[in-house]
Amino acid sequence: SQQGEEDPQALSIQEGENATMNCSYKTSINNLQWYRQNSGRGLVHLILIRSNEREKHSGRLRVTLDTSKKSSSLLITASRAADTASYFCATDGTGGFKTIFGAGTRLFVKA
Amino acid sequence: GAGVSQSPRYKVAKRGQDVALRCDPISGHVSLFWYQQALGQGPEFLTYFQNEAQLDKSGLPSDRFFAERPEGSVSTLKIQRTQQEDSAVYLCASSLRTGPETQYFGPGTRLLVL
Hints:
A: mainly beta, 6-stranded mixed beta sheet, 5-stranded antiparallel beta sheet, B: mainly beta, 4-stranded antiparallel beta sheet
């Protein structure tokens, strides 16, 4: 079973627009990560945010974490066609080694 | 340096056949993870190694699945008596330190059981 659930399941936008994806999880975490997967490059780590952090930036990416609501969001600004991919959030538990991925958001950026 | 590599990239097996999937992690990485990814789904955790020790195998779906990392580097995931429901992409990932920190994924092995 998967802990994280991404919302929306699919998202289609125009190049230059912003894309926001949300992730909800069920149990306490140490950190939350976002990954991107496309057919060309496989799964690639984007950003990690720890449970004591509320916001983190990396280039055009902005991630927020609300541990009280057990949710996170990933914002991609000024999207490009190359951002077309599936995006997954992944969480760890506070006691084990398991990493739990959500089912992903499929993002399609139209040129 | 090289990333995580996996072989074979594609494997077709007849139902009941045994298969072995190989993972070469990034050199020096302590942690190694195996995942199973069904079409349209996120990766599902199978097992975790810290060096040669298998510390978590809670995700292995049945006793037909076995993983090893005898020298703390290369790992093999073995599936005995394959079934059609084993068809999936098997992903390997490694990370520098212990625990679920940033993971670097291999390209995966796509297994099709006929």
